[in-house]
Design a protein that fits this description.
Elements (H helix, E strand, L loop, with lengths): L1 E2 L4 H10 L25 H16 L3 E9 L23 H11 L6 E11 L6 E11 L15 E3 L6 H4 L1 H4 L4 H13 L31 E6 L2 E6 L12 E5 L1 E3 L3 E5 L5 E9 L6 E7 L9 E6 L2 E9 L4 E7 L3 H8 L16 H4 L7 E4 L11 H9 L3 E8 L21 E6 H10 L3 E4 L1 H18 L7 E2 L14 H14 L3 E6 L12 E7 L6 H10 L2 H11 L10 E5 L7
Parallel strand pairs: 1-2, 6-23, 8-17, 8-19, 9-16, 19-22, 20-21
Antiparallel strand pairs: 2-3, 3-4, 4-5, 6-7, 10-11, 11-12, 12-15, 13-14, 14-15, 17-18, 18-21, 22-23
């Protein structure tokens, strides 16, 4: 999709917000370098001029935006002249624009808002407009180093830092352009517009589990099979699994991803590792607490017993950090100094026991920053008992990200930006599935997400779409895949895995909501999830309206909730065969 801009900052922001939706290309990338005069007196008019010009010149549908800062006390200025506020006919000079704004605001109200209008042109008979707005105030001085334009001056409502100080990760979920782009994304979305309010429920906060039951398999187990509910314990699981059951577990291993540093002034800075960007774990995408106290050229250090861990910025704008270790490897240092990344609703200090409690017994591949919590109920004894009964087991790997705890702030499901997570699957798993020919039992929603993604990956290989190993949030609702049966998709996927040497690695952003059709998962072992979450949407899709009966029963019986809570064995409403 063509974005009628050559502004690198706008392009970066749009690509981040529309990740997984479509490839966004700039005018330069289309070979277009002409200046488009913005002569309208409104944001809508300028966006239309740009979009219409590109459509007529290149003959391809596109979108364009016009954005600006509006200060009511200045009669709407800078407004449509935001980019050239300091010099209408000269080159764009952001610093001069900011200084002029500070000068003219002396003694006046500092209330302001950013606004964006996007014009979508060529996709429909008439142009379509999307509006975005974020309110805030103008700071007394320029602060922060990221972003562009008026970002060093604009403090969004509800925050005490400027857009530049907050950084791109936060800004991209608040900004005027974010709201407009998400409305455009919703316009194209094939995801059903599910109202999240219908997936709310109330619960006693005393039911949130702060520690697991010991032994772990003594947690309670709600069994929902053949439309009937039974209340058991997790060690009773084998009696509810048929002899031909295939269990599929996630073998990811949680790393101690949270670190506490002190800067040179003794101020506390939290570093939360999100995702390694290289195989040696030197570069990481990270979330930084007290971010503005961690300066651009500063190194933070932890040291003990001859082992030292240093962290510094690699790219502050993209929240990329660099790790270095002395006296051992980076892996050693992470293990030594990191804390277990307990979810935010477990409001207590991390304890030594969490290192074992927040890790599955079959965890083997490091990379997750959150546990696949359904796995936590298995003990060595129970795992061996399943072997004795002849229950088959296979593994997938999905490195669970912090996005699993990301709250759904949108009212409707198709407005939510689903997080993507890295996975890998083996040829052995694909062959096992092809031989099984009936639905499998997924241990946890993370295993379920990978298994369901396999169908769409196979379809993509059959269609020749192999430029990336990626399942988007839209794929589960795309008509291109409706003509494929499960066996055909798995056979195509087998070819792809073989081509990659027996292991296929990629990312999945799969988003399962009511309206999605399950292809591989017949039963699901899972904990109880937060209201209005992406996981409760998955459960409601899996069970239909029976999810309400299941949750009402669990809450009525006092089941413990969330990551360290009790579990369930749920039978899906569709019989799956291939």
């Amino acid at each position: 999709m063509i974005f009628a801009t050559n502004n690198a900052h706008k392009l970066q922001e749009a690509r981040a917000i529309l990740a997984g939706f479509d490839e966004i290309v700039s005018l330069n990338e289309c070979g277009f370098s002409e200046e488009i005069p913005e002569t309208a007196d409104s944001f809508e008019g300028n966006a239309l001029i740009k979009a219409k010009t590109i459509y007529e010149k290149l003959g391809k549908p596109c979108f364009a935006d016009d954005s600006g800062l509006v200060v009511p006390a200045l009669n709407g200025a800078p407004g449509v002249k935001s980019a050239r506020y300091a010099s209408e006919n000269g080159p764009v000079n952001h610093h001069a624009n900011n200084l002029k704004l500070l000068s003219e605001l002396q003694g006046l109200s500092r209330e302001a808002y950013f606004t964006t209008v996007i014009c979508l042109y060529g996709f429909t008979p008439e142009p379509v407009f999307f509006h975005g707005k974020v309110e805030g105030t103008i700071a007394e001085s320029l602060t922060g180093s990221s972003g562009f334009g008026y970002d060093p001056l604009f403090i969004p409502q509800g925050y005490n830092q400027t857009f530049s100080e907050l950084g791109d990760e936060i800004k991209n979920t608040l900004s005027h352009r974010y709201h407009a782009l998400m409305k455009m994304r919703q316009f194209f979305s094939k995801i059903p517009p599910i109202d999240l309010e219908e997936y709310n429920y109330s619960f006693d906060e005393a039911l949130i589990a702060y520690h697991p039951v010991q032994p772990k398999d003594h947690s309670r187990l709600l069994v929902f099979q053949n439309k009937e509910i039974q209340h058991k314990h997790f060690y009773d699981l084998p009696q509810f699994l048929k002899s031909d059951t295939l269990l599929v577990a996630n073998d990811t291993k949680v790393i101690p991803a949270r670190f506490w540093f002190l800067n040179s002034k003794g101020q506390s800075i939290q570093v939360f590792l999100l995702k390694p960007l290289d195989s040696n774990w030197i570069f990481w995408e990270a979330m930084i607490g007290n971010r503005k106290k961690f300066k651009e050229n500063e190194s933070l250090v932890l040291e003990k017993d001859g082992l030292r861990l240093r962290v510094s910025w690699e790219n502050r704008e993209s929240n990329t950090i660099r790790l270095a270790a002395d006296g051992g490897s980076i892996h050693d240092a992470i293990e030594k100094f990191g804390q277990v990344p307990l979810p935010p609703y477990i409001e207590r200090e991390v304890q030594d026991g969490d290192r074992l409690d927040y890790q599955a017994i079959f965890a083997s591949k490091e990379g997750a920053v959150a546990a696949p919590t359904a796995s936590l109920h298995f003990t060595e004894n129970l795992w061996s008992k399943l072997d004795d009964l002849g229950i088959k087991k296979s593994f997938v790997t999905l490195h669970v990200s912090a996005g699993t705890f990301k709250p759904v702030t949108a009212r409707f499901a198709n407005e939510h930006e689903m997080h993507a997570e890295c996975f890998e699957v083996t040829l052995d798993l694909i062959d096992t599935l092809l031989n099984k020919r009936t639905g499998v039992t997924a241990i946890g929603t993370t295993s379920c997400r990978v298994l369901e993604s396999l169908f769409f990956l196979g379809c993509k290989f059959a269609l020749g779409r192999t430029e990336e190993v990626f399942v988007s949030s839209e794929d589960g609702y795309h008509p291109d895949f409706d003509t494929f049966n499960i066996e055909t998709a798995l056979l195509a996927l087998r070819e792809w895995v073989l081509k990659e040497g027996g292991v296929l690695k990629g990312e999945t952003q799969i988003f399962i909501v009511p309206g999605y059709k399950f292809r591989l998962v017949q039963q699901l072992i899972t904990n109880f999830h937060q209201p209005k979450s992406t996981l409760i949407l998955m459960i409601s899709c899996f069970l239909g309206d029976d999810w309400k009966k299941v949750y009402a029963s669990a809450l009525g019986e006092g089941y413990r909730l969330f990551s360290y809570g009790d579990s369930s064995l749920l039978q899906g409403r569709l019989e799956i065969r291939w």
